[in-house]
Amino acid sequence: LLRGAAYPHRNELRDVDEIGYLKGSLALAEGLPPGYGAAPAGPNTWLGWAIALGRAGRLLVQPTGKNADAPLAVRPFMAIDRVLFEQYRDLTGLRNLWIISQLLLTALAIVAAFQWGKIQAGIMGGWVCGGWFAFSPLFVQGSVMAWPYPTAWAFGLLALWSAAAAPTRWRRIGILFGLAVASRVEMLLLAPVIVWTLWDRQLPIRQLLRGALVSAGWTIIAALLAAPWLVTGLLGNLRAIFAVRFGPNPMGPTTLAG
Fold first, then answer.
1. Sign of the C-alpha dihedral, residues 40, 155, 214, 245?
2. What pLDDT score was predicted for residue 168?
3. At 146, phi and psi to the nearest 5?
4. What is the pTM of this model?
5. Which of 28-37, 62-71, 172-181, 231-240 comes out lowest in average pLDDT?
6. Angle (CA) 47 51 54, round 5°
7. How much is the pLDDT for 257?
8. From the centroid of its chain, how far is CA 30?
9. Which of 22, 63, 98, 203 could be stapled to 68 by a disulfide with Cβ–Cβ 3.0 to 4.6 Å?
10. With contact defined as beta carbons under 8 Å apart, do 193 and 152 qualify?
């Protein structure tokens, strides 16, 4: 209900970064890397890419207007060109798709947060963790925006739940965590919590170390498959991340006193 009440109006823009993230899917459909390389938003970007190519494919199979009169050899180019033009002109449909898919994913993440908290600290721990993710203003507001943050946290919480409920499913843990990292690189900071969760399951140390290496391998594979543009501009991405996180504020002092 909270997320439904916070759903944006058709032409409402809550953050300028939304446009950049949405255009990343269209850039990928053009064969270009998304503009926000340091903030990969991999799963969301591929979803928008798939929808754009799906619409182009439908226009190719069922051409209308000038596409129907064009030679067959050029119809694929005309179809993707028309779809991209329409999407760039109005990003509303792409944003609605992003938000709806993110709402479904975050709903599952609320369950994951509850289950992880319940396993770790009993029923009260479950209500605290689930309630935190369900009602925190950051997640309520973020889940109805074209932002990758809620998606990243959703996959991270699913990885935590998997680590607590099925600690020997190393591949599943690694893939879920890799998708979280492919959404936001700073989700790597969640790795110690996953390791602690696995340690708390009291697995033999040798099995834990071997499983952690397997999960780490699958994390790398999943992250690079979901956001390969992380590697193509690795040095530039690292520079951007460190500049934003640790560099001086380019907007100057943020205190009221200046």
1. positive
2. 86
3. -80, 65
4. 0.84
5. 231-240
6. 135
7. 40
8. 20
9. 63
10. no
**What is the rounded average pLDDT of the residues 68-76?**
77
Contacts of 24 (CB under 8 A, 6+ apart): 34, 35, 36, 41, 45, 48
Query: How many alpha carbons fall within 13 Å on the CB side of residue 219?
Result: 22
Q: What radius of gyration do the chain's Cα atoms show?
A: 21
247, 250, 254, 258: CA torsion to nearest 10: 110
Average the pLDDT over 38-59 and give the result: 87
Q: How far is CA 173 from the centre of its chain?
A: 16
Higher pLDDT: 33 or 255? It is 33
Higher pLDDT, 72 or 94: 94
Longest Cα–Cα distance of the chain, Å, equals 68
Cα 208 to its chain centre, rounded Å, is: 28
Contact 184, 37 (CB under 8 A): no
